[in-house]
Write a structure and sequence with these properties.
The complex is a heterotrimer. In chain A, helix 13 links the parallel strand 15 and strand 16. Chain A is an alpha/beta fold. In chain A, the strands form 3 sheets. Chain A has a 7-stranded mixed sheet, sandwiched between helices. In chain A, strands 10-12-11-14-15-16 form a 6-stranded mixed sheet, with helices on both faces. A two-stranded antiparallel sheet of chain A has the order 1-8. Chain A is built from 14 helices and 16 strands. The relative contact order of chain A is 0.12. Chain A is globular, with a radius of gyration of 21 Å. Chain B has a two-stranded antiparallel ribbon. Chain B starts with 28 loop residues before the first strand and ends with a strand. In chain C, helix 7 links the parallel strand 7 and strand 8. In chain C, helix 1 crosses helix 7. The radius of gyration of chain C is 19 Å and the shape is globular. The mean pLDDT of chain C is 98. Classes of the chains: A alpha/beta, B alpha+beta, C alpha/beta. Chains in contact: A-B, A-C, B-C. At the A-C interface, strand 3, helix 3, helix 5 and strand 9 of A face strand 1, strand 2, strand 4, helix 3 and helix 5 of C. Strand 9 of chain A pairs parallel with strand 4 of chain C.
Chain lengths: 393, 88, 307
């Protein structure tokens, strides 16, 4: 078992990286990710780890350096946020297409303009189709735990895909929590050295990054799709193994009160805590049939797990922390609407956006949402099916 | 494990598989070597963009499987040992 | 200096690649690969050399070769170099390969310049070679910042008002040298011995090194494919492209051109400059000549030579 120490989210990520025997880290500083690279730099400067730290001139180069090192067979980590992720955009696709099991932490932050350094999920949602496995952490403990698991998921022979761990900017990155960290030896046992399948090796002259004509291209992309679908099983296996080691079992999602909840709120990231806290209070003090559903794994989308989790729900309120301007629903709302169509699900779907650019997320807001959901469950018409939470409740 | 018959990540696991690609078919003019004149100086060999000059003991030969007929060898040969002729 | 007979017979630049007939860049790549001193990894950005050499499942490369994107070759090479540094440090492998970037002028002068600057500043031990065909040839001859003044390209057309590219070519070696790197040099394919010697010399140097290799392009420069080497030679003989090296900041002329040919002899065989040979545009040739003369004087001064 581990020890308990006080860590901010960024520090917890850096601490996990320190324990994962990472060969190379390349990153560019951006708020609110900076503390991660600062801590990793300190570990390297003090000789606590022998990781190569390549401190580059842009995020585009950061991920490009990572791709080069990952193709050379190393375990590789990077971290960014917001504009940095946007600048990496094309490299994200190259990394997944070249099947580089890189792990990246994203300190979720709004996108310009106007400039804003605070949390929302616009950055990740803007790159959601990049082919990376994508998980969201609710708190600092989860951010730490997911980084360690992410390497195991990414490097699994059935996956071989990059993986991103999202943690909410400031709310998690800069807040200190009591974190239970593993002993170094336990991490080592859980995460053996990476075994690359193909790597850049002067002894075997291989070509990496060939281009593909139409008769080949679709095969590579569909093969990549097979891999990300296989990661669904791997995420669950790794989560179970991690649970045996730590007592904190991970899965694709985490439900609360769904055995009898008529109204559930689906969310990702730190808001999930606020939602679950409120649901518990409403259930315990008022006996309301409400539940909370936290999505850990956003890509691949855990369809089957969601279908069973939502079996009893009459009204589902999906919270999106990103706008999809001009679209019918937000990114997460769209996925749930698709799920309903594909699996013939029958509940009322409300999809609200919230928390843009760090806009506050409070238990009062959550309570209003649950109460709105309960009215809708009784047959009332909601003020709107979509919209911004502040304006709806 | 995959139902697609391609190598993960588009890796080409063997070197110089381009040898299958016989670019000699592009040629409209062909270089012809007069081995009597050839002094094996190898200038054509170093200048050939298509690695289509074969080094022999005393002189060079053209690898017509790959020669695209650019004519650099004929142009650069100090002994005028190579002439370009129209493909038949 | 080497002799041709001393060079390896083995071709690491496989025939069967899809470069145009008479491709100057292809000649450059072949020569570079003849100069290797041991285990090597080559990185290329998107561009002519990348496209003609790596159509899955066919590769022309006889060495490990990596392509990722257009503007990041120097960063990818940084990652490979750093990875091997780590592996040697950890005893995972005992040999650190030479890492060479072979990149076009678009991927170097323009879109890849930031990544290159970053890699030079970080002092990665690698060799960055730009094969300069003076435009975006792969996409159909669009101007780059390596395109010379006056040249026609599809985005600097010889129009009635604007006769070809109005701006001068960027000084890549000047930019590289400004990073304080230990070795930088120019080379071109006609001078094969100079080119191969410089590649070897650059590989021997610890730290980042840069070679700027002029590689004429029959398609984009509009000349007969048989003339590629001749055009390369004329570029030197007219002092259009002086061959020199900069070792720890010290400039040294590689080929002394004591009786230069007028630049017209370089320009005339190339139809990309055809519009300059009209009475109304003649003055541009004069400007180019003046620019070459002044550049040569500057270079001589840097080399500590008198004109």
């Amino acid at each position: 078992m581990g020890r308990r120490i006080g860590l901010m989210g960024d520090e917890a990520v850096a601490y996990a990286v320190k324990q994962c025997d990472v060969g190379l880290v390349s990153a560019y500083p951006i708020t609110p990710q900076t503390i991660m690279v600062e801590r990793i730099s300190e570990y390297v400067a003090n000789g606590e780890i022998d990781t190569e730290f390549v401190c580059v001139e842009s995020e585009h180069s950061a991920l490009s350096v990572c791709v080069g090192a990952s193709l050379s067979g190393l375990r590789v980590f990077t971290a960014t946020a917001s504009q940095g992720l946007a600048l990496m955009h094309e490299v994200l696709y190259a990394a997944s297409g070249l099947r580089c099991p890189i792990v990246m932490a994203v300190a979720n932050r709004a996108l310009s303009a106007p400039l804003n350094i605070h949390c929302d999920h616009s950055d990740m949602m803007g790159s959601r189709d990049c082919g990376w496995v994508q998980v969201f952490a609710e708190n600092v403990q989860e951010a730490y735990d997911w980084v360690i698991q992410a390497f195991k998921i990414a490097e699994h022979p059935d996956v071989q895909l990059p993986t991103v761990v999202n943690l909410d900017g400031f709310t998690l990155t800069h807040c200190m929590e009591d974190v239970e960290v593993l002993e170094d030896e336990d991490v080592k046992k859980f995460l053996p050295p990476r075994k690359p399948i193909y790597w850049v090796d002067p002894k075997q002259p291989m070509t990496f990054g060939a281009w593909a004509m139409p008769n080949y291209y679709y095969k590579f992309k569909l093969q990549q799709q097979e891999a990300i679908m296989r990661s669904l099983r791997v995420v669950k296996e790794v989560g179970e193994e991690f649970g045996k080691l730590t007592g904190r079992r991970y899965d694709t999602l985490y439900g609360y009160g769904l055995e009898d909840a008529e109204v559930a709120v689906l969310s990702m990231g730190s808001t999930s805590g606020t939602i679950r806290y409120t649901a518990r209070r409403l259930r315990e003090s008022d006996g309301l049939k409400v539940g909370a559903l936290k999505l850990w794994l956003f890509r691949p989308f855990p369809e089957e797990d969601l279908v069973s989790a939502l079996e009893k729900v009459k009204v589902l309120i999906v919270l999106d922390r990103a706008l999809s301007p001009g679209a019918v629903f937000g990114p997460l709302g769209s996925d749930i609407a698709s799920l309903m169509v594909k699996h013939g699900l029958d509940f009322k779907l409300l999809n609200y956006t919230y928390g843009l650019g760090g806009d506050e997320v409070t238990p009062e807001m959550a309570e209003k949402l649950f109460k709105l959901g309960l009215k809708v469950a009784e047959g009332a018409k909601p003020p709107s099916l979509t919209g911004y939470v502040r304006e709806v409740v | 494990m995959s139902k697609y018959d391609v190598v993960m990540g588009a890796v080409i696991t063997k070197p110089r598989t381009s040898l299958e690609n016989k670019t000699g078919s592009w040629r409209t003019r062909r270089p012809v070597v007069d081995v009597e004149k050839c002094v094996n100086c190898l200038l054509c060999w170093i200048y050939c963009p298509d690695s289509a000059i074969i080094r022999l003991e005393d002189h060079i030969a053209i690898n017509y499987d790959y020669c695209k007929g650019c004519g650099i060898c004929a142009e650069e040969c100090p002994r005028k040992a190579i002439t370009m002729v129209e493909e038949g | 200096m080497v002799t041709l007979k001393q060079l390896p017979v083995e071709e690491l630049w496989g025939p069967g690649h899809n470069a145009c007939a008479g491709c100057g860049s292809s000649i450059a790549v072949k020569m570079i690969l003849k100069a290797l001193r041991g285990p090597t990894v080559v990185v290329s950005p998107t561009g002519c050399v990348e496209v003609v050499s790596s159509s899955y499942p066919q590769t022309a490369w006889g060495v490990p070769w990596v392509h990722v994107l257009f503007e990041n070759a120097a960063a990818v090479a940084s990652g490979i170099e750093a990875a091997y540094k780590y592996m040697v440090k950890k005893g995972i492998t005992n040999e650190k390969p030479d890492v060479i970037v072979i990149a076009g002028d678009g991927g170097t002068f323009d879109i890849g310049l930031q990544a290159l600057s970053g890699a030079l500043e970080r002092w990665h031990d690698f060799l960055y070679i730009c094969y300069d065909n003076e435009a975006y040839m792969n996409t159909g001859i669009q101007r780059s910042s390596a395109t010379p003044k006056g040249a026609w390209t599809t985005t600097s057309p010889a129009g009635k008002v604007i006769p070809g590219k109005p701006e001068w070519k960027k000084d890549l070696i000047g930019i590289a040298v400004a990073h304080g790197i230990p070795y930088a040099a120019t080379a071109t394919i006609a001078y094969w011995n100079d080119l191969i010697t410089k590649v070897r010399k650059a590989l021997e140097v610890e730290g980042p090194t840069v070679l700027h290799v002029l590689a004429p392009c029959p398609l984009g420069w509009r000349f007969d494919p048989s003339k590629t080497v001749e055009i390369s030679r004329l570029a030197v003989q007219t002092r259009y492209f002086p061959l020199y090296e900069v070792e720890n900041g010290v400039y040294k002329l590689s080929v002394k051109v004591s009786r230069p040919k007028p630049v017209e002899e370089f320009l005339r065989p190339q139809r990309r400059f055809r519009h300059l040979f009209t009475p109304e545009n003649r003055h541009i040739i004069e400007e180019i000549q003046k620019n070459i003369d002044e550049g040569w004087e500057r270079l001589l001064k840097r080399c500590g030579l008198k004109s």
